Amino acid sequence: MSDNRPSEEVDVTREWRATQGQKSAATRLRIFAAIAWAIAIGGEIFGIVLLRQHKFDHGNLPLLIGILAGIAVFAIAGSLMWKAANKHDPARESDKARFFFQNQLGAIITVIAFLPLLVLIFMDKDMDPKNKKIAGGIGVVLAAAATFIGVSWNPPSVEQYTKDMNTCAAQIKANQPTTACSPEVAEQAKAIAQDSKTVADATKDATHPNGQDVVYWIAPENGAPKAATPHVFHICQGVSPLRGKTVNHGSVTEAYAQNATRITKQIPMEQKQCGFAGSTDKAASPQPASTGTAD
């Protein structure tokens, strides 16, 4: 069997992908964030209309400050919900433009929600100078605070989650402290570790009492380095689904690298076809965390 100790430099072979639950949660949060931002911009428009109507020339300072505070509250709420959505479904760091705008959208929207109104306040020649300084000063402080909160200083990425997921899986397999297992990657990392354990349990025999870390899968189409769609991997080359096919073999990690990421559900049948000894309960019944079907 291969050494299960996680290396210092993790070999990222299986890309992290948001689950359906994570995608749904992200969508809900982004809808609520958009609503909050719409209210913030609506408050700005309301303030501009009142400013154009000269409602703040000689009074109504508390109303103007209240409008600015309301814009800040909803802008911040939207930013926090958007950040939470990005934790569930992050962008790829390799896509520079999308990565920047998706992660910094909260700060961008906040600037849009404040800047026009603040400019008009400072340029208003009819407003009482004292009120202008007070309202403008408070507005600048609120805008700066909301923008600071809206900035994503250490944004998540698919690449980072992929690295964390593979590190987490290695730690689980080695029975080490799971320091890399954040809630966002833990479920899929457990699936990787479970697949490896299931294969080892299924391939135990007199020669290999601890099982083997060798699986077989249909080779990627047209010699590509990675299959376009997920494939199933099997415990030997002689199983029915692989007959007459071009087959690759290697460790579970190498199977993941070529997008063979689903373990067969026919392990008891394959053990008979492959000549392995009787299965254990764990080998005979792969855990549902791995979404496998036979090819």
Describe it.
This protein has two domains: 20-158, no CATH class; 191-284, no CATH class. The protein is rod-shaped, with a radius of gyration of 28 Å. The protein has helices at residues 20-52, 61-88, 96-123, 129-150, 158-173, 183-202, 252-257, 267-274, 281-284, and strands spanning 215-218, 232-234, 247-250, 262-263. The protein is mainly alpha-helical and 295 residues long. A four-stranded mixed sheet has the order 3-1-2-4. The longest helix has 33 residues, at 20-52.
Please state the overall shape, judged from the principal axes of the Cα atoms.
rod-shaped
Helix content: 55-70%
Radius of gyration: 28 Å
Strand order of the largest sheet: 3-1-2-4
Note the total helix count.
Answer: 9
Mean of pLDDT? 82
Give the topology.
Layout: H1 20-52, H2 61-88, H3 96-123, H4 129-150, H5 158-173, H6 183-202, E1 215-218, E2 232-234, E3 247-250, H7 252-257, E4 262-263, H8 267-274, H9 281-284
Parallel strand pairs: 2-4
Antiparallel strand pairs: 1-2, 1-3
Helix pairs in contact: 1-2, 1-3, 2-3, 2-4, 3-4, 5-6
What is this entry, summarized?
This protein has helices spanning 20-52, 61-88, 96-123, 129-150, 158-173, 183-202, 252-257, 267-274, 281-284; strands at residues 215-218, 232-234, 247-250, 262-263. The chain is mostly helical and 295 residues long. It has a 4-stranded mixed beta sheet with strand order 3-1-2-4.
Give a quick set of tags describing it.
4 strands, mainly alpha, 295 residues, disordered C terminus, single chain, 4-stranded mixed beta sheet
